[in-house]
Write a structure and sequence with these properties.
Length: 363
C-alpha cells in the first residue's frame, strides 16, 4: 500500500507543469526601445520658494526678450517665485506625434520647493539634439517643507522634484527598423547559452524547423513576414511562447552597506571547517579618593583606577561537508548566531580557501 501511494505521488509530481516564463519576459525585440529626452526650462508661480541663481536671471531675461520686454542691465528682478529646472522624460517605442508622455521636473538651483509651480513651454531633446516633445503644465509635488521664525524647519520627502502626468506632447517620431528585413531579432535580458537554445527549440517546435537560430548567448534571429500587419500578429504569437529558462550561475551577492546577503540556490561548499568567536575589550575608569594622611596635610587626592576586562566568547566550530546545499549553509550559520558581518567574513574566507563554489559579488 505504501509503495503504491509513493508511486502515485511520484506520477503526480511528474505531471506538474514545469515552471516557465513567457518569451516577452525573457527577451526584447532588437530595435524596439525607448529613448531618453531632456530639456531646460523655468517653473513660475512659486510662493517665495524659488531660487536666485545667476542662470535663472539670465533665462528669465531671455524669456522676457522673446515677448518684447527688455529688463535693464544691473536690475535684479528678485525672482522669488521662479526656479530654473531640468525636465526629463522617456519616449516609448513607436510613439507618434500628438501622443502625450509623463515628465519629471527637477530644480537645479537652490529653490526650496516647486509646490504650486507651473512649467513654462520647454523643448525636450534627444541625444541627437533634435526636439521630440514639448512639455508644459502644472506640477504635482509629493513632498513639503515648513519653517519657523526661530530658524527651525522640517522637510518631508523631496519638494524640489515634481511630475507632470501627460505633461509633454510628442512632436517627432523616432525612426525604427521594425518592418525591415526578413528576420526579427530577440535579445535575452540575461545572456545564457542554455536559455537561448531552449528559446530556439520552442519557436521551431511551434513554427517549424529552421525558423529560429541563435547567433550567440544573447541574440536569436527569427524568420518573419515583411508585411507590418502580419509581423505584429507574428510577434503576438511569439511573445506568449512559454520557455523554461536555464538556472542561473551560482552566486553569492553581498551588500556591504546594508548587510544584505543573498545566496543562490546552486551555491555549493567543499569540505571545510569554520571557527566563529567574538572578542570584546572593555576599559573602565573608576577614580578613587584617598587621604594622604598626617604628612600630606590632610587633603584628599584622586587616585586613578583603570580596569581592563577582556572577554572572549567560546569559539564554536562547524564543519561543511562535501557539496553542502543552501539550506545546510543557512542552518550552520544560524546555529552559531553569526551576524551579517560575520557571515560576510566567513563567505570571503571560504572563497579565499577555494571551498566556495560560487561567484562572490560585493555591491
Amino acid at each position: 500500500m505504501l509503495r503504491s501511494s509513493l508511486s502515485v505521488l511520484l506520477l503526480l509530481l511528474l505531471a506538474l507543469p514545469v515552471q516557465a516564463d513567457r518569451l516577452k519576459d525573457l527577451a526584447t525585440v532588437e530595435g524596439v526601445r525607448s529613448n531618453q529626452l531632456i530639456g531646460y526650462g523655468l517653473v513660475v508661480g512659486l510662493d517665495g520658494s524659488g531660487d536666485r541663481a545667476p542662470f535663472t536671471n539670465q533665462t528669465f531675461r531671455n524669456l522676457m526678450s522673446q515677448f518684447g520686454i527688455a529688463v535693464p542691465d544691473g536690475v535684479d528682478p528678485r525672482l522669488d517665485n521662479v526656479a530654473a529646472v531640468t525636465v526629463h522624460a522617456e519616449l516609448p517605442a513607436f510613439s507618434r506625434p500628438g501622443q502625450t508622455i509623463d515628465v519629471t521636473v527637477s530644480s537645479i538651483g537652490n529653490a526650496d520647493s516647486l509646490r504650486g509651480g507651473t512649467l513654462l513651454m520647454t523643448s525636450l531633446q534627444g541625444a541627437d539634439g533634435q526636439t521630440y516633445a514639448i512639455a508644459q503644465g502644472s506640477l504635482v509635488v509629493g513632498g513639503f517643507g515648513a519653517g519657523g521664525a526661530d530658524g527651525s524647519s522640517i522637510t518631508v520627502n523631496v519638494p524640489s522634484v515634481g511630475r507632470i502626468p501627460s505633461g509633454a506632447t510628442v512632436e517627432r517620431e523616432v525612426a525604427n527598423a521594425f518592418s525591415q528585413g526578413d528576420t526579427i531579432t530577440y535579445q535575452l535580458n540575461r545572456p545564457d547559452f542554455t536559455t537561448a537554445k531552449r528559446v530556439v527549440e520552442a519557436i521551431n517546435d511551434l513554427l517549424g524547423p529552421d525558423m529560429a537560430y541563435a547567433q550567440d548567448a544573447t541574440r536569436i534571429d527569427v524568420r518573419a513576414p515583411r508585411d507590418a500587419s502580419q509581423r505584429v500578429s507574428f510577434l503576438s504569437v511569439l511573445e506568449n511562447i512559454d520557455v523554461e529558462p536555464a538556472q542561473e550561475r551560482a552566486r553569492v551577492v553581498i551588500n556591504s552597506r546594508t548587510g544584505t546577503i543573498v545566496i543562490g540556490q546552486n551555491v555549493r561548499v567543499s569540505p571545510a571547517a569554520v571557527t566563529h568567536g567574538n572578542l570584546s575589550v572593555t576599559i573602565a575608569e573608576n577614580p578613587q579618593a584617598a587621604d594622604q594622611g598626617l604628612f600630606g596635610g590632610g587633603e584628599a587626592v584622586v587616585v586613578p583606577d583603570t580596569q581592563i576586562i577582556v572577554q572572549q566568547d567560546d569559539a564554536r566550530m562547524f564543519e561543511f561537508g562535501p557539496a553542502v546545499t543552501l539550506n545546510e549553509i543557512v542552518q550552520s550559520v544560524n546555529q552559531v548566531g553569526a551576524a551579517p558581518g560575520d557571515v560576510m567574513a566567513v563567505l570571503e574566507a571560504l572563497r579565499t580557501a577555494g571551498a566556495l563554489r560560487a561567484d562572490l559579488i560585493v555591491i
